[in-house]
Amino acid sequence: MAGPTAQFPENLQYTAEHEWIDIVDPQSPATVGITATAVEALGDIVYLELPEVGATIGAGTVVGEVESTKSVSELYSPVSGTVVEVNQAVIDDPAIVNSSPYTDGWLFRVTVEATGDLLSAEEYAAVTG
Amino acid sequence: MTTDPTDPTDRQGPLHDEHLALGASLTGFGGWLMPLRYTSDLAEHRAVREAAGLFDLSHMGEIEVSGPQAAAALDHALVGNLSAVAPGRARYTMLCAEDGSVLDDLVVYRLAEDRFLVVANAGNAALVARELVARAAAFDAVVADQGEQTALIAVQGPRAEEIVVALVDPADGADATTVREMRYYASSAVSFEVAGERVDALVARTGYTGEDGFELFVPVGVAPLLWRTLLAGGAPLGLTPAGLAARDSLRLEAGMPLYGHELDTTTTPFEAGLGRVVKLDKVSDDGTPVPFVGRDALAARKVSPPSRVLVGLRATGRRPARAGYGVVLPEAGGPARRVGTVTSGAPSPSLGYPIAMAYVSPELSAEGTELGVDVRGRVEPVVVVPLPFYRRPQQS
């Protein structure tokens, strides 16, 4: 992708597949979304398929999909755990993910039983070039 | 999530700096680095449907064929009857191989009795130029590849006429009338006044969006100034720069084929529902049939039942089919049977539901036939619908 280099929030951790996860405290559910880089590559997001509340998901496995007008990408879970909440607002209006990928555009919350290969903001910035 | 890197060998067109200045996301297409989107695919798509979009199409190939036998050479080289096209008019046609397969789909503009402009897809431009040179060799005609010198800018949408007319040299009232009264698939030389300079353009009322609109062929040197002047003048009317993503969703809604998707070297015009472009009965000046390249194969294909037919599909769910996905026939008590392949698919911005074009078995091509598409392992229900998906409202 050409375009301006995105700035990635330092408090988040990232996957090489362009998800972010906010683990505030390992005992509490973490919040997962997709990065500005992913959003820029996809274009306007028009449909999201997210895991069900109560689903057990594994780190690095496909747990949903993100459809834009131009393409579709699979959504990978950054951690293993149980889904405790999905963001109904983005299901109803996927454009929120385009406008606010790190805040209102979060996708789901999951308990953290084990983490996958997570990257710091700096490491992720290196991956995305 | 994955992202596609661009290819470092992609060429930059004459408007590259304009795209960078507008903050475009760039993508490789047909060997060129082109704007995929400026801000939002959906906003750019809507601008074309509701006001107007500005497209850089400088990646397209322009090949001029001129000389006393230019028309006869094109009648031999292409499947259409180009000698029947009046000067100032244009025709959608195809370059086929001897076996009848499609090497490219083209728009050919007859500029004068002895001069034609052949517009080819970017990825096929070199092949088309080579084939035209070879096929015109026995004729008194000259084939000249003008792609390097020519920029192509399109203004598409219901406000396009106003925007283009505003650029006509005010000293030339005749040219303004020419633009206003130009018919669909017509073209004319028009002089614009761009920042005080006179710019001679070939203006055609053609496009690839399903809307009214114009395509402006100009020398590459004046293209950036023309682009900026169009944008400045058109912005108050809603003119929005639009990238290839919007162009693709617009043409898909309009049911227009894209080479490499609906058309390729495994396809003849008949499977694509475009058999009407093949003029088997065209004759030369002395009344004898023209043995054009691919004629025998296409004549045989016309009378034999096709093995597959291009159809439109409308999804009843929300997950869009994408190019390459399998079309299946859901069968009670058994696994779904593969009956076709999706060639293009997207969520339709104008219609609000997923649409696709696909090749399917002829017995399953009737309107209303209920089929499925294997969308990454899960079958989504679709129904066969007529093309185009979208037709612009007729002007009152």
Automatic annotation (TrEMBL), chain A:
Give residues where N6-lipoyllysine occurs. K70
Any single Gene Ontology cellular-component annotation: glycine cleavage complex
Entry's Gene Ontology BP terms: glycine decarboxylation via glycine cleavage system; protein lipoylation
Keywords in alphabetical order: Lipoyl
Which residues are in the Lipoyl-binding domain?
Answer: 29-111
Q: Which InterPro entries match?
A: 2-oxoA_DH_lipoyl-BS, Biotin_lipoyl, GCV_H, GCV_H/Fam206, GCV_H_sub, Single_hybrid_motif
Required cofactors, per record?
(R)-lipoate
Q: Which PROSITE patterns match?
A: BIOTINYL_LIPOYL (PS50968), LIPOYL (PS00189)
Top-level division of the source organism's lineage: Bacteria
Short name of any one Pfam family annotated for the protein: GCV_H
The record's free-text note on cofactor binding: Binds 1 lipoyl cofactor covalently.
Q: What does this protein do?
A: The glycine cleavage system catalyzes the degradation of glycine. The H protein shuttles the methylamine group of glycine from the P protein to the T protein.
Q: What NCBIfam families does this protein map onto?
A: gcvH, PRK01202.1
- Subunit structure, briefly? The glycine cleavage system is composed of four proteins: P, T, L and H.
Q: Which PANTHER family match?
A: GLYCINE CLEAVAGE SYSTEM H PROTEIN (PTHR11715), GLYCINE CLEAVAGE SYSTEM H PROTEIN-RELATED (PTHR11715:SF3)
Q: Which family does the record assign?
A: Belongs to the GcvH family.
Name used for this protein in its record: Glycine cleavage system H protein
Species this chain originates from: Cellulosimicrobium arenosum
Q: What is the lineage of its organism?
A: Bacteria, Bacillati, Actinomycetota, Actinomycetes, Micrococcales
TrEMBL record, chain B:
The cross-references to Pfam families, in alphabetical order and at most eight, read: GCV_T, GCV_T_C
Gene3D superfamilies named among the record's database cross-references: Aminomethyltransferase beta-barrel domains, Aminomethyltransferase fragment, Probable tRNA modification gtpase trme, domain 1
The record's InterPro entries line, in alphabetical order, gives:
GcvT, GcvT/YgfZ/DmdA, GcvT/YgfZ_C, GcvT_bac, GcvT_C, GCVT_N, TrmE/GcvT-like
Which parts of the sequence belong to the GCVT N-terminal domain? 15-282
Its quaternary structure?
A: The glycine cleavage system is composed of four proteins: P, T, L and H.
Function, in words: The glycine cleavage system catalyzes the degradation of glycine.
Q: What is this protein called?
A: Aminomethyltransferase
Native organism is Cellulosimicrobium arenosum
Q: What broad taxonomic lineage does this protein's source fall under?
A: Bacteria, Bacillati, Actinomycetota, Actinomycetes, Micrococcales
